[in-house]
Amino acid sequence: MRKKIVAGNWKMNTLPAEGVELAKGVVAMRGEVCDCVNFIVCPPFTHLAQVAEALKGSNVELGAQNCAAEAKGAYTGEVAASMIAALGCKYVILGHSERRQYYGETAQTLNKKMEQVYANGLTPIYCVGENLDEREAGNHFAVCKQQIEEVVFNLTEEQFKNLVIAYEPVWAIGTGKTATAEQAQEIHAYIREVLASKFGAAAEECPILYGGSCKPSNAAEIFAKEDVDGGLIGGAALKAEDFIGIGKGFMA
Ligand code: PGA
């Protein structure tokens, strides 16, 4: 049985005190969903320590939204994977389309970040997905395949066992436009096939999350699909009730 995951990407939202409140809300409501669903919150770097404290003793896990490509040293403004790990993070989101698009993250950078994430015992949540033009041109399969080949294919078999993939069509992120459950299943199955071409049967164990305007009202239908193992949630992760409500999609 693959792990079921609902991960919240808070992006650049909430002040620290608000983040702590949100985390406490998630902890308070977490019991409404069975333990078989793993909840992860990914606040901004500045709140990680306080949110870690708020999550203590709960089974809500902590992740970061990014990390540096280097281990340490003269890299002004960067945050090392070792620092994130020291604060109690278990996960790091890597390759989010916003980072690829606005911060020019390339496969080369992402390969270095992956190395740092694994060197520090963290689990990457590696994002792939096509933009609207690519979808309309029918290139979404090729785009996802390339984003996987140029980064995930460089992992060892051991590292691959500790990887989460998030398929996030750029045209669905923050737009209110969700991929249909069928569209999600089609590409998730394809991504699993690509992973299997390199890692064989281990691909069956890799959680593949859907991301892009996922909300309580559409989660159940999307999560019901065979190759969809949960969600990476942006906007709806900013309200504990909605975030937990998405997790309830597994229980529908
Ligand atoms: P959204 O964002 O749920 O607000 O569309 C998802 C994401 O970017 O991870």
Q: What does this protein structure show overall?
A:
- The structure is a single chain.
- The chain has 252 residues and is of the alpha/beta class.
- The chain contains eleven helices and eight strands.
- It has one domain (4-251): TIM Barrel.
- The protein has helices spanning 16-29, 48-55, 81-86, 97-102, 107-119, 132-136, 140-149, 157-160, 181-199, 216-223, 240-247; strands at residues 4-9, 37-42, 60-64, 91-94, 123-128, 164-167, 208-211, 230-233.
- Strands 1-2-3-4-5-6-7-8 form an eight-stranded parallel beta barrel, surrounded by seven helices.
- Strand 2, helix 2 (48-55) and strand 3 form a beta-alpha-beta unit.
- The longest helix is centred in the C-terminal third of the chain and has 19 residues, at 181-199.
- The protein is globular, with a radius of gyration of 17 Å.
- The model has no long low-confidence stretch (mean pLDDT 97).
- The structure holds 2-phosphoglycolic acid.
- 2-phosphoglycolic acid (PGA) binds next to strand 8.
Number of domains: 1
CATH architecture: Alpha-Beta Barrel
- Strand line-up of the largest beta sheet: 1-2-3-4-5-6-7-8
What is the CA–CA distance across the termini?
18 Å
| Helix vs. strand class | alpha/beta
Helix content: 40-55%
Strand-residue proportion: 15-25%
Order of helices and strands: EHEHEHEHHEHHHEHEHEH
Rg (CA only): 17 Å
Q: Count of DSSP E strands?
A: 8
CATH topology: TIM Barrel
What is the typical, i.e. mean, pLDDT?
Answer: 97
Assign the CATH superfamily: Aldolase class I
Number of helical regions: 11
| CATH secondary-structure class | Alpha Beta
Uncertain spans? none
Largest sheet: 8 strands, parallel, barrel
Q: Ligands in the structure?
A: 2-phosphoglycolic acid
